[in-house]
Amino acid sequence: MPMCLESDTLARSVIFIAALLSRRHDSPCVVAGVSSPDGLGLMKNVYPSSRRGLLNVRRSGSIVLFTVLILVLVAGGSGLVWYYYRQNEDDGDERILMARVTRGPFEQIVLEQGVVESSSNVDIKCEVKSGASNTTEILWVIDEGTHVERGDKLVELRTSALERDLVQQQIVCNTSYAMVVQAENTLRAAEIARLEYLEGTFRQEEQAVLSEIFVAEENLRRAQLAFQSTERLAARGIVSALQMEGDQFAVEKARNELDAAQTKLEVLRKYTRAKMLKQFDSDIATSQARWDSEKQSHELEMEKLEEIREQIAKCTIIAPEPGQVVYANTFSGFGGGSEFVVEEGALVRENQVLIRLPDPNKMQVKANVNESRISMIRAGMPVSIEFDAIRGRKFRGRVTRVNQYAEPTSWRSGNIREYATFIQIIDPPEDVRSGMSAEVRILAEQHNEVLQLPVQALYETRGRFFCLLKDGDRWETREIQVGSSNDSYMIVQSGLEEGDRVILNPRAFTDRLELPDMPDADSSEVQDELASEPRPGGSEAAGPGRFGGSAKGPPSGSGSGGGGRGDSSGVGRAGSDGAAGGGAAGDGAAGDGAAGDGAAGDGFDPARIFSMIDTDGDGVISAEELARLPADQRTRIEASDLDGDGQITRQEFMKAVGQRSGSKPSGQDEGSSP
Hints:
This protein has 10 helices and 27 strands. The strands form 8 sheets. A 6-stranded antiparallel beta barrel has the order 2-14-17-16-15-18. A 4-stranded antiparallel β-sheet has the order 7-6-4-12. It is elongated and about 205 Å long.
């Protein structure tokens, strides 16, 4: 409005000058100012007294109009310059954004997306063993979402290959049975042969030898009687000496025959019988072993036959429990494409889950939480759940379990680590189903009355936090101690009072900030911090929290907007583009309890090292800042330049420290941009 008034005054002055110029050219014209919408007067000539006078008037009028146009442009430009000059003369009050430090409730919420599932599922698997093709085809499957009762058919698999195997196995079983019968008959024959020898053959041979002995004895007795008679006759001289020698020889012969028969009987009883029994026993044992082997082989073949019959029966899958059918479809991490879909014609593997029957009374939400915030979550924390399919209603939940190991990653997720968090749904609605998407809000920290200020009002440098206050014409820089933060506010532990007015955009007034002297980047403090860096395989420091409370694990913050970045205390840092752009500080890690304020331990703090080296606070360690470091420190810091561009961002520095230590360093904030 002041600019318009000033321009209107200049315009009226131009009209007056134009009128004077017209009179100097002896033009019999009358100048009249006619108002127009833009506030400028228009020049009009009135009736000339003659034709010559008319030509002079027209010529002089063109000159006047040209002169007026130039003067108008000059006047407009002067007005704009004057307007902006007046604006710049202001001391910048119109750029000041202010807020008051308030006391009130504070909540730190972890917001994530999850998927509904049942904590108690009955998994229906393919129990058909893999054959030559290692897969079995689905012939029929029940529709997903169908409510089934115990005994209802769920899936039918192809049985043609198993039926062929059944026929072949039946032939094998018949052959093995024939071998069993043959082996048994051989055993029985061997047992009969042994009995035959003992009860028949041996006795026959024994009786024959005994007969031989009896005959030999008789022959010996007769020869002896004949020899005695001949010996008496020879004494009388009736027979000759030669005849007596013959009878004596007959006696010796008979005696030898008796000895031979007796020896034969002894050999038969003592050796021949034992030898034959040993042979028969060996044949019996061999036949017994063969029979046992054939019987076992037949039993195995029969088990295979029965197994094939069971596999054919398992091709028809029935419901063991009542429930609602949910297909166990799986999707790969590469592009989100389907890896397996339960449908007719699909090939399934042995023990592959085909269908799940969830328990509707034990529903839960599985949410993957980023590693930068997982240390804030504990079992038992309250949760607010909202289902995408049930808008307008919120349900209560409770964190039941947080996995100790990160979920498997894919090439799309890069180096981001997420931990599965399971949330029980208290009193789940009847229309909730497995696979539904849900938004969970985990209440990680809550205070009823706490001093807090907007996160934009913080100015952080070298690990210390400052606020800029303005009271009338008086400016004051005040160092503060902060606690946890959410996306909007941060807890003030000391340095401010309720009602204090702080500047929301302190980076726009860096010339009014009065910061205390802080150690340079090449001080011994940096060396001490570097010396405490953990090595691979070492454990992370876990000491008392910076602001009270015990911290466990690698606490870190996560920033959003304005390049927010978390530091070791879990406090988000405003980016180099200034906190006034709505940049919110990151979420700090809570302490050991559900509502603890403790954050980082007193051990190695890479965020503090980065802040001390980044002297200009722009979030990047430049070549000039590196040059101010000692040679040994500079070499270690230069190794963090992962992309080789000559500059080291906070994200590069944190990642390099994590790679060297073999774990995620304290204060790392994935996803933040310097």
